[in-house]
């Protein structure tokens, strides 16, 4: 069995981590061990669990510099974003350390004599399958609530983020938190063994995870990406909108499920193109350890090649490359230039399907209604943005967009960890993540009736 290896996308010769794959037997053993630990963990009172999560937050904060450097090295995230992810991870742990004390049920008037109440109880072992692009934040926004409400966790990270996951486990230092190294085989084994499953990744894999969990009858949530539009109306502050769109489309080489993938210009296409082109040109491009860089490498060669192939395919279909479209081999790693494409029909694959990289399509709409139709005309529905100074139009358009997140005069990228996160259509399945919604997902409600003994 080949080992699981993680290599730096900036310098592919740099082996960041290597571990034997757990295999199905290793996953089963990890789940069995976690199930034993879960009984003790769930029996601890809220104050003990809160203190453990608070200590974990302190440990992550204490290792902030080391963790940010590891994120830069392992997944190529620009250092400013890497530092932000570490800070967000600390906040997530502290938030759920306090949410431990939220009500877990309610007392109701009984139909007869006695006491009637509900209470929430943990489901058991949470199987978490996470991507590489947020190697700390995504595992923690799944694991922290699962742990807070008394579950144990078995995390199967993407191979490209193995080192971050293993270091996270060391810092959390909880028997109820385990990491297994692996790829598709281990992910499938985890879905077959866990009591509740949370997945973030591609729509294709997410569909398999969902089907397998549903067959077993266990709760499952899947976040599966987006083809996120930014609608720019004629009255928008174009300079601000262009800067936000450029950063949301190209930052971290466009490797976010909430990245802007389509720019829909309403009656002002030429101005929007020029403003976004200028904003993209101002983004730093290169070594992610450089604080001035916003656009670093793609995660691996296959990802880099998909971006270049998508740009080439767009030209072959009559599209126009406004900027970029090529690999940047001189930088040494898996780099592709930030790319803007226009003159593509709405049903072209690049306009409909997610390409996880720094490539974005510009589309024109004659009216706000046409812009909404374009925005909704794909199978994804994760995030959208509307740029306008008109509050009435902002409210009207945001109510008609088929996305789980709608931003007005704000970029599609970025989410608040204390609010529900998820999309519509093929972007998501199951309960929302994060915030108060997480308690609903990681627990079940029991109704308890106590009648007088005589």
**CATH architecture classification of the largest domain:** 3-Layer(aba) Sandwich
How much strand?
15-25%
For this structure, the CATH topology of the largest domain is: Aldehyde Dehydrogenase, Chain A, domain 1
CATH C-level class of the largest domain is Alpha Beta
Plain-language structure description:
The chain is α/β, with parallel strands linked by helices. It folds into two domains: 4-224 and 427-450, Aldehyde Dehydrogenase, Chain A, domain 1, CATH 3.40.605.10; 228-408, Aldehyde Dehydrogenase, Chain A, domain 2, CATH 3.40.309. Helix content is 42%, strand content 20%. The chain is built from 15 helices and 20 strands. It has helices spanning 23-43, 46-62, 64-75, 79-99, 137-148, 162-172, 184-193, 203-216, 238-250, 269-282, 301-316, 349-352, 368-376, 391-400, 437-442, and strands at residues 4-7, 15-19, 107-108, 115-122, 125-130, 152-157, 177-179, 196-200, 220-223, 228-232, 260-266, 320-323, 339-342, 359-365, 380-381, 383-387, 405-408, 424-425, 428-429, 443-450. The strands form five sheets. A seven-stranded mixed beta sheet has the order 12-13-14-11-10-16-17, sandwiched between helices. Strands 7-6-5-8-9-19 form a six-stranded mixed beta sheet, sandwiched between helices. A three-stranded antiparallel beta sheet has the order 3-4-20. The longest helix has 21 residues, at 23-43. The chain starts with a strand and ends with a strand. 53% of the residues are buried. The model has no long low-confidence stretch (mean pLDDT 97).
């Amino acid at each position: 069995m080949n080992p699981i290896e993680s290599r730096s996308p900036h310098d592919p010769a740099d082996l960041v981590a290597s571990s034997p794959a757990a295999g199905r037997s290793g996953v089963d053993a990890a789940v069995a061990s976690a199930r034993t630990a879960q009984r003790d963990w769930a029996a601890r009172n809220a104050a003990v669990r809160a203190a453990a999560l608070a200590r974990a937050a302190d440990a992550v904060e204490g290792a902030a510099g080391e963790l940010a450097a590891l994120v830069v090295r392992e997944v190529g995230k620009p250092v400013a974003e890497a530092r932000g992810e570490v800070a967000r991870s600390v906040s997530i742990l502290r938030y759920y350390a306090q949410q431990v004390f939220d009500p877990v049920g309610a007392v109701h008037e009984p139909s007869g004599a006695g006491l009637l109440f509900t209470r929430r109880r943990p489901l058991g072992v949470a199987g978490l399958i996470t991507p590489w692009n947020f190697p700390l934040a995504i595992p923690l926004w799944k694991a922290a609530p699962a742990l807070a409400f008394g579950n144990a966790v078995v995390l199967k990270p993407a191979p490209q983020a193995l080192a971050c996951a293993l270091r996270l486990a060391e810092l959390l230092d909880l028997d109820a938190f385990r990491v297994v190294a692996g790829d598709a085989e281990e992910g499938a084994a985890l879905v077959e063994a866990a009591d509740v499953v949370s997945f973030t990744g591609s729509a294709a894999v997410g569909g398999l995870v969902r089907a397998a969990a549903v067959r077993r009858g266990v709760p499952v949530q899947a976040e599966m990406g987006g083809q996120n539009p930014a609608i720019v109306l004629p009255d928008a502050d174009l300079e601000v909108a262009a800067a936000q769109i450029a950063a949301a489309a190209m930052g971290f080489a466009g490797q976010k499920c909430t990245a802007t993938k389509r720019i829909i210009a309403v009656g002002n296409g030429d101005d929007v193109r020029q403003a976004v082109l200028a904003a993209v040109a101002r983004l730093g491009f290169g070594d992610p350890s450089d604080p001035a860089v916003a656009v670093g490498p793609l995660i691996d060669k296959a990802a880099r090649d998909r971006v270049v192939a998508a740009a080439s395919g767009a030209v072959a279909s009559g599209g126009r490359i406004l900027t970029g479209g090529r690999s940047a081999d001189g930088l040494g790693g898996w780099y592709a230039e930030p790319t803007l494409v226009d003159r593509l029909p709405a049903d072209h694959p690049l306009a409909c399907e997610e390409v996880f990289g720094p490539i974005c399509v510009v589309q024109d709409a004659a009216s706000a209604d046409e812009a909404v139709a374009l925005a909704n005309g794909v199978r994804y529905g994760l995030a959208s943005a509307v740029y306008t100074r008109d509050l009435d139009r902002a409210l009207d358009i945001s109510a008609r967009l088929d996305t789980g997140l709608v931003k007005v005069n704000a970029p599609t990228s970025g989410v608040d960890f204390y609010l529900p996160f998820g999309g519509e259509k093929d972007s998501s399945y199951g309960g929302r993540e994060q915030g108060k919604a997480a308690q609903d997902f990681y627990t079940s409600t029991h109704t308890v009736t106590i009648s007088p003994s005589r």
